[in-house]
Amino acid sequence: MDFNVDAKRETAFFQIGCIIACSVALAVLFRPYFPTLLNIWTSNPTYTHSPLIPFIVIYFIWDKRSLLREIGAVPSYKGGLVALLISSLIWIVSVGGRSRFAVELSFIILIISLVWLNFGIKIMRTISFPLLLLFMMIPFPEILYGRVSRTLQLLSSKFGVAFMQLFGVPVYREGNVIHLAQTTLQVAEACSGISSLISLFTLAMIYAYISQKGIVRRLVMVLCAFPIAVFMNWIRIAATGMIAQYWSLEYAQGFYHSFSG
Questions:
Q1: What is the pLDDT along the chain (261 residues), one digit of tens a residue?
Q2: Domain boundaries in the chain?
Q3: What's the first-to-final CA gap in the chain, in angstroms?
Q4: Long-range pairs of 9-15 with CB within 8 A, sequence gap ≥ 24
Q5: I need a labelling partner for 7 at 20 to 30 A (CA). Which of 61, 177, 194, 253 fits?
Q6: Are 209 and 225 contacting, i.e. CB atoms less than 8 angstroms apart?
Q7: Neighbours of 219 (CB within 10 A)
């Protein structure tokens, strides 16, 4: 009888059992909070990309299957267990504080610590980007979202008017209200640019991971998402104002408005 083969088989069954148990425990823990998260994903256009992220994460991990097979799962019952204890404490505090954002954030941390525990530090490092991408599923807290959105509203109004004035359009601004000779436009929260900023930032992370090598080049590409999203929203508002001024308000608020957004 080959005791080594039997020992390896028992170890493999034990690891599979741990993984299944951890998966079930995670599902049970997050079950009460998932409907709220799903409601935000489906009701807020800013986060309609979020349900796709788990599938993208699974693909990125599957794409590294050969490398992961070479590394092999080596459970870390030292560092991984410490990480699990800390993340569990964070989860308990978050649940006690009844903060949706904190609960969702701590849930992702729990997932990462369980990967560390069951598969080891080498595998966790190898799939670190897919694991970090999971954080992009989490909607911002309403207070932070509203504050950033209002700031972007005013900036978009200000620079949109500045671009129109460069082209000689008679216009002036009061807050986020733009007064033209023929009509008045209001830069609403939906036109603040925060939706495109969040979506483009997530897309930039994925594209940088696929197309670039090295942390610096990837970081530069991701950071470029911020000025690109904000600048293009300014151009969009300026173009909307000029169409409303020289063509028709109906065209500015109709197909062009939806298409450019």
A1: 444 444 455 555 666 777 777 778 888 888 888 898 899 888 888 888 899 999 999 999 999 888 988 888 788 888 888 888 999 899 989 888 888 899 999 999 999 998 998 888 898 999 999 999 999 999 988 888 888 888 888 888 888 888 888 877 777 787 777 777 777 777 766 667 788 888 888 999 999 999 888 888 889 988 888 888 888 888 888 777 777 777 765 555 655 555 555
A2: 3-137, 143-260
A3: 69
A4: 15/73, 15/75, 15/118
A5: 61
A6: no
A7: 12
